[in-house]
Amino acid sequence: MTKQNQKHILRFSRLNRILHVVMIISFITLAITGMILKFSYTPWSFFLAHFFGGFESAGLAHRFAAILMTAVFFTHLIDLYLRKKNEFGSWKKMLSGSHTMVFTKKDWHDLRDSIKWFLGKAPRPQYGRWTYWEKFDYFAVFWGMIVIGSTGMTLWFPEFFTLFFPGWIINVATIIHSDEALLATGFIFTIHFFNTHLRPEKFPMDIVIFTGNMTLDEFKEDRPAEYEELVKNGELEKLFVEPYPPIVISAIKFFGWTALSIGFSIIIWIIYAMIFTYK
Amino acid sequence: MKDLIKNIIFLLFLTQIIFSQSSDDCLGCHSDETLLGSRNGKSIKMFVDEKHLSISIHKKLECISCHADLKDAEFPHEDELKKVDCGICHEKVSNEEKTSLHGLAEKRGDNLAPKCITCHGKHDILNVKNPRSKVNPLKIPFTCGECHSEGTKVQRQRKIHQDSILTNYTESIHGEGLLKKGLIVAPSCATCHTAHNILPHTDSKSSIAKQNIAATCTQCHAGIETVHQKIIKGELWEKQSHILPACVDCHQPHKIRKVFYDEALSNEQCMKCHSEKIKSKKDGKILFVDLDEVNHSKHNKISCSQCHIIENKFYKRACETITKKVDCNTCHEEVGKKYLSSEHGKLFIKGDANSPTCVECHGTHSVTGKTDPKSVTFARNIPNLCAKCHRDGEKAAKRIEGVGHTAVENYSEGIHGKGLTESGLIVTATCTNCHTAHEILKKSDPKSSIHNLNIASTCANCHHGIEETFKKSIHGTSLGKDGKEPPSCKKCHSVHSTSRTDAEGFKLNIMNTCGDCHKEIASTYFETYHGKVLQLGYTKTAKCYDCHGAHNIYPTSDSRSSLHRNNVLKTCQKCHPEANKKFAGYLTHATHHDKNKYPYLYWTFWGMTGLLIGTFAISGLHTILWLPRALEMRRKKRLKKLSETESEK
């Protein structure tokens, strides 16, 4: 191993890492307290409701976590706005740059090439800053936040919303809120976990989202296109950071494992509820 | 010849005067069975049976003696005659009758008032000594009974203070003497009430007025003051010498009992032996009697021999002639009847060894009555009393199936039991409040106080207001959809273990209770927010009765219903004070499985499900396809690492 290879490169900003952690906490809280209600007919729900100190406090936790997540959402939007203002100058520049979250032609090519790669007909595509599945994840969450958030508000303040809508809108909101949440939970705790944390080559866990940095070797292999670009621009050196001490890594791993375990437990619970006690 | 004709004419004329309208003349027409006349515009038979007249006590009278207005009348006389006035001859009796209850009623125009003919008949009036006379002593009870027996118009529609008069009289010693032993000296109705001067007992002139009753009874019981038992209920019966108390104070009118007050031994005589711890020679039972106990009981004024009936008091040991067991029925007749018709009584009749008799519940010498806190039949002690046999494992519980099995345990857990034992409320329901004390019947018996259809009125003994509301509600007025019996109080509140309705358990369970019959509506309730949180144990949410009402449930089309379109908003506002009219449009029993009823929900659900399945299908496939490559990458990486470490070495 050469010295340069041990260099760590910054991938996620501090703010984004904090937002992700807050998101994990609020998401898991929302998932558990929400599923308690969705699957209220399972014995698990009853147990968990009591764990939260009764259904009433579970409901409070749900609302508190909802506020937290809304805050994450708006913080991200403000961050986007500030970065547009400070780094790019215009939305167009920001969204057409190589770090854009918007789907580009390259993403479609990457998807096509990825499938070829999966089928053994082509080498691994040269993924850039954001892969297409990461972009999909991003927009899935973005969409989910709007859908679940708005229906959640309807359910939180039904008296207010029925000033403008008929009463059955609450029933519809219930279905959308709960099924969209089921989709979000299911997706995050399976596909997202696998895609970004649990892939065999990263197993047992990719902690880049918490540390924000990864070894240059890994980076080179993972994001060849981005690496090329950084080298070309001569910006690579700017992104070198010192790795965290082992104790911090351990703490991060502990947190990550906790979140993962809770996530998987929820998945098992959902599967159990859907298969054995579905109503 | 001329003279002869003159004489004949004279004679004819004379007979016209002397024998004007002889009875034969009347019968000339009235012996015709087909003769019709009219009275008050109605056509009636005017036939008079000569046979009746010939045996009547009035046989020597002419028709016109009574039908006085026909004197000198021409034939055929007018249809409408004056009513016969018996007072022409029977002046005294008639005057008496006019001021009697019967006479006054007639004067008022009471259509049920009896007239002379009602009791005595018309043309067929017989001598009172004739056994066929309606007023012969043997017949009097039945003649009076025509109006004064059970169920007659007079008994039902007029104020008569006694009931079952004829039955009671027939069973009394007087009735038995007259009707079973043929003693015409036994008093009949008229003996006490008089025949014609019948007055209410409140009238001081009445033969049955309290101050006159002794005189009336002493018509027959002339020497009663010399032979009557002197000490009754531990007191001298005559407060002053030779002034009799009102007989009816002890001997109820009509119901005079045969051996109510037996000529008895004094308690002292019994206690000569029974104050010692003597034993029965037969079965070794201890025959000691604690007189103190008796003296503090309800029966403290009743002597031993009134219950332990002695056949012959002239024996040296009179108690040897006691052959019968104590029969409480002698005094407590009505209760006894109820008991015999009850489940307990039925067992007794069958000769079942387990059947409880009076003493099992009331004890023997120490009976103190249900108002005494020390009594076994005092409200607070009743559950324990019944539990003696009905606690699980005891003899009665063994033969009862179903809820009755654990009734005692459940009761003590229930609100009524706790009210009694914890709050000390003696007004709370004990066993006897619902099952009755003596008429205990199985719930399958339609007469039972706990029969499904009677439960509401049984509970209404205390919860009257609830029953009033309930019986108007849909559950109180109609059968279930499948013809099932409507729910009674016990369906929701359960028996014995009746819980407080503000208890968590009750609130959580009510869904299952209502859901027993309202299956579909209850299951869809659980698909909505209210139902889901209730399942999690959150009882502040809307339960069935919060919206539909508890006892006052009506169809939603009924304007009294809390869910009627005019009332529904108010109902929502109980929990959602800010609710508006559209808010009340929330579908509280909605399901997304019913395409026709709730298309919005159905399509929303399937849209969301489609999105979910689609997303998982695509991303899942993507992941699965990826897996082999990822594993390959992992392998290569490890190989690379291995080779690197080796090369470093």
Could you list some keywords that capture this structure?
heterodimer, A: 279 residues, mainly alpha, Fumarate Reductase Cytochrome B subunit, three-stranded antiparallel beta sheet, 3 strands, globular, disordered N terminus, B: 649 residues, 4 domains, two-stranded antiparallel ribbon, 4 strands
How would you portray this structure in words?
The complex is a heterodimer of chains A (279) and B (649). Chain A is mainly alpha-helical and 279 residues long. Chain A has a single domain, classed as Fumarate Reductase Cytochrome B subunit, CATH 1.20.950. Helices cover 72% and strands 3% of the residues of chain A. Chain A has a 3-stranded antiparallel β-sheet. The longest helix of chain A has 34 residues, at 55-88. Chain A is globular, with a radius of gyration of 21 Å. The N and C termini of chain A lie far apart (57 Å). Mean pLDDT of chain A is 87; it is low at 1-5. With 649 residues, chain B is mainly α. Chain B folds into 4 domains: 1-83, no CATH class; 120-233 and 243-261, no CATH class; 267-465, no CATH class; 478-585, no CATH class. In chain B, the strands form 2 sheets. Chain B has a two-stranded antiparallel sheet with strand order 1-2. In chain B, strands 3-4 form a two-stranded antiparallel ribbon. In chain B, helix 18 (333-341) packs across helix 19 (343-350), helix 23 (407-413) packs across helix 24 and helix 30 (504-517) crosses helix 31. The N and C termini of chain B lie far apart (195 Å). At the A-B interface, helix 1, helix 2, helix 3, helix 5 and helix 6 of A face helix 32 and helix 35 of B.
Write a brief caption for the model.
Chain A is an all-alpha fold. Chain A is built from 12 helices and 3 strands; from the N terminus they run βαααααααααβααβα. Chain A has a single domain (4-276), classed as Up-down Bundle (Fumarate Reductase Cytochrome B subunit).
